[in-house]
Design goal:
six-stranded mixed sheet, single chain, 31% helix, two-stranded antiparallel sheet, 171 residues, alpha+beta, globular
Length: 171
Amino acid sequence: MGIRDNGGRVLYPCRSTRSTQAKDGGFATFVIYGSPGSGKTYTMTDIEERAAYDFFENMGSEEQSTTVSVQYVEFCDNQCFDLIGPIGAFVRVAEKGDDGSFRFKGALSKTASNPHELLQILSNAKRRLATQATIRKRGDGNTFVLCQMTVVQRGRRGCLTLLECPADERK
């Protein structure tokens, strides 16, 4: 990669495959990891935007009805906050079964039926994250952000999970 590359050349094949996997009823996860200022949020936003259009691709055909439900949460100082529901809403993470799966108790889920609605939901969650960051005094702990998009299409249910993780700078 050259200095002028924006990462799209490297991310596109992987991102496209993961979006398709979720759209086809599978499960896919991206873990975006790095130190402050390394571009984690930029990368996560790029993946979200591309996935929004991938999920609703070919929507014009008569049998294709696609919906995407989103949950967006922030983990900060041993607490979990909903970035879609009421401001300051606490969320509990609960194990769902013996398979290690989990769910968010108290997290609101919003559903989109086209890419523009989905992008609006994601954009609002990111604004909420930025607003809460200035309102809430953060301790020394790291902040993690998780976006979970559940895609329902042609009777199949898949999931794309994005997790933004900071590098631990403490020695």
